[in-house]
Design goal:
The protein is about 5% helix and about 45% strand. The chain is mostly beta strands. The protein has a nine-stranded antiparallel β-sheet, with no helix packed on it. A hairpin with a 5-residue loop joins strand 5 and strand 6.
């Protein structure tokens, strides 16, 4: 992976990506977040990404007052740090939301979803069904473009 587009190395590399979904699997101790890369400033290849935190200690979505759905949660800042040897991943979003997760290690995947439009749906004028149909999701058929792993220390 090009180190200039590695969220484990470069702060804010995920700017303008859109957060689509986040899940925590307590049984497997994994937290994952899906990102639409079609609007991201730094990614020239791939249209979809997933960040997975392994050995998760915490995962939190926070917003003061959620807007009416559907909402494009646009990344304005991203940062990975290693306090006490753990991987801490933080996203700041507009409108006013944050995602933070912490665990032993992490993997970042960049995918290409064949056949998806070059631009995301219009959240303002398209209805919720049209918006969802135009977005990548957990069960999308993908081609892996890049993968990077941040191991436990």
């Amino acid at each position: 992976m090009d180190p200039d587009v590695d969220p484990f190395v470069e702060d804010d590399v995920l700017q303008e990506a859109q957060v689509l979904d986040a899940r925590v699997d307590a049984v497997s101790s994994i937290a994952a977040i899906l990102l639409d890369l079609r609007t991201a400033l730094q990614f020239e290849v791939g249209n979809f990404a997933m960040l997975v935190v392994h050995g998760v200690r915490s995962a939190e979505w926070q917003t003061e007052q959620p807007p009416k759905p559907p909402t494009a949660w646009t990344v304005v800042s991203s940062r990975t740090t290693r306090p006490s040897g753990l991987v801490h991943f933080h996203l700041g979003m507009w409108p006013d939301a944050q995602w933070a997760s912490e665990g032993a290690s992490a993997t970042f995947f960049v995918f290409d979803v064949p056949g998806i439009a070059d631009t995301p749906p219009d959240y303002g004028s398209d209805g919720p069904t049209v918006v969802r149909a135009g977005l990548p999701h957990w069960s999308s058929t993908v081609e892996v473009i890049q993968e990077t792993f941040l191991p436990a220390i």
